[in-house]
Amino acid sequence: MIPAPSSVQGSDKIVSITDLRFTYEGGVEAVKDLTLDIRKGDYIAVVGGNGSGKTTLAKNINGLLRPSRGTIMIRGHDASKMAVPEIAKVVGYAFQNPDYQLFCPTVEEEVRFGPSNLGYSHEDVNVKVQRALDAMNLQHLRTKPPLSLRLGERRRVTLASVIAMDPEVFIFDEPTTGLDTEESEMLMQKLRNLNAEGKTIILITHDMRLVSEHAKRVVVMSQGRVILDSDPRGAFADLDILRKSNLEPPAVTKLAHALKAYGVPVDIISPEELVFHLLRGSEG
């Protein structure tokens, strides 16, 4: 299926990907002929089953991997000619496993490492570090060794490390893994705030509830290709696409599909919408 045009209007492209291919050693082709534009203010959920190419795509965008073929332009510059620190000023990335990202002796040093290596002044670094620690509620843990913390706390440290670098684009790979309900809501509120400030958010996730509640745009991947680029309503209304990607829509959307014969729209993405349509139907 040919991906739908992006629903995001305007020409303020931050990342432009054209005919991207990436093949790992051994011949596994993880991304195939992928074309995608990412613009300022996007809030994109990149979804797909295991092995669909989501994380490989993210690592190509932030320079940890380099394309086998095709181009990635970042703010109009060819990413293949940019060093990783240059890319990091624009694109920040938080790993799915926080332990892959932690190496400093204290939480504060961990959060300080990124902005300190991006050329910011000492004063600016201090401000960015304090804001990031506050954002992730880590002030009381600032002197602790990161690897001594529980999983949810380690996850918050890695997210604070990315926030402190103040990039234009944030890529979060399964960010709520290891977080309890309260921590997850705190994180998602922070992402909403960042997006409201004009930051671009790319959320790689299997959690369709997060997608329905937060994303403005859904990019569905399967076997290394983008098979749908839509808003959440369009994505969840297409059950064939979701099945092809080994994804389950939110429970409320599944229920809406089951009630389609009773006049309930299939593109419902919230319980409130479902209740509204059921009540309206009962009144009729």
Describe this structure as you would to a colleague.
With about 280 residues, this protein is α/β, with parallel strands linked by helices. Among the domains are: about 1-90 and about 205-250, 3-Layer(aba) Sandwich (Rossmann fold); about 250-284, no CATH class. Helix content is about 40%, strand content about 20%. The protein has a six-stranded mixed β-sheet, sandwiched between helices. The chain has a four-stranded antiparallel β-sheet with strand order 2-1-4-5, covered by helices on one side. Helix 3 runs parallel beside helix 5 (about 150-165) and helix 4 (about 120-135) packs antiparallel against helix 5 (about 150-165). The two termini are about 40 Å apart. The model is unreliable at about 1-10 (pLDDT under 50).
In short:
Helix content is 38%, strand content 21%.
Which descriptors would you attach to this protein?
alpha/beta; 11 helices; disordered N terminus; 4-stranded antiparallel sheet; 284 residues; Rossmann fold
Order of helices and strands: EEEHEEHEHHHEHEHEEHHHH
- Per DSSP E runs of 2 or more residues, the count of β-strands stands at 10
What's the mean pLDDT score?
Answer: 89
Oligomer: single chain
Low-confidence stretches: 1-10
CATH superfamily of the domain at 1-90 and 205-248, by name, is P-loop containing nucleotide triphosphate hydrolases
Shape: globular
Class from secondary-structure proportions: alpha/beta
Total DSSP helices: 11
What is the fold named in CATH at topology level of the domain at 1-90 and 205-248?
Rossmann fold
What's the CATH first level of the domain at 1-90 and 205-248?
Alpha Beta
The appropriate CATH architecture of the domain at 1-90 and 205-248 is 3-Layer(aba) Sandwich
DSSP helix fraction: 25-40%
Strand order of the largest sheet: 6-7-8-3-9-10
Work out the radius of gyration. 20 Å
Largest sheet: 6 strands, mixed
Q: DSSP strand (E) fraction?
A: 15-25%
C-alpha end-to-end distance:
38 Å
